[in-house]
Specification:
Elements (H helix, E strand, L loop, with lengths): L7 E4 L5 H14 L11 H19 L3 E8 L2 E12 L10 E10 L8 H15 L5 E3 L6 H6 L14
Parallel strand pairs: 4-5
Antiparallel strand pairs: 1-2, 2-3, 3-4
Length: 162
């Protein structure tokens, strides 16, 4: 979909997996609780392999969907949703939710609306699929972007890392 003469937002293809993996790893390198991990470490090599395998399987089977922002055929931003099986609630009787992850914009191109454009594509896709819950974990830098399009903090989420 053409957003303006300057950039386009399109659905990612299997051939785009290397770009999506690179963007995911770059995003992880900037997120506060991962900045202590060396991006040249074995942990990051395992991350690349694992995320590539996830995308290969989930994109092929429509369990996840990714979008890329391009300028002159160069990928400058991307984001992905994974479709989750959830428990229905009194305000959402469906059993599906979308989990936004791997949102990344190349540093020199931030604040151009690329993330909002991707998030709007995600919202349109979810509505077309009957998905009415979209979840994400926001970094401090990303929080204002998400709040600007209506995301709200939910304090009841907890996690146990095993």
């Amino acid at each position: 979909m053409i957003i303006s003469k300057e950039y386009t937002v399109r659905s990612a293809l299997i051939d785009d997996i290397p770009v999506l993996v690179d963007h995911h790893c770059l995003m992880c390198g900037e997120v506060e609780h991962f900045t202590h991990v060396d991006t040249n470490s074995e942990a990051y090599e395992k991350l690349k392999v694992s995320y590539r395998k996830k995308l290969e399987f989930e994109l092929k089977h429509s369990i996840c969907k990714s979008w890329i922002v391009e300028v002159n055929n160069k990928a400058l931003a991307s984001g992905t949703i994974s479709i989750l099986s959830m428990v229905p609630s009194p305000i959402d009787h469906t059993c599906l939710a979308a989990y936004v992850h791997s949102m990344y914009t190349v540093e020199d191109f931030r604040r151009n609306g690329f993330a909002v454009a991707i998030l709007n594509e995600m919202k349109e896709y979810c509505l077309s699929e009957g998905i009415t819950r979209i979840l994400l974990n926001a970094s401090n830098e990303g929080r204002p972007v998400y709040e600007s399009i209506g995301f709200q903090p939910v304090a009841s989420i907890m996690m146990l890392q095993l």
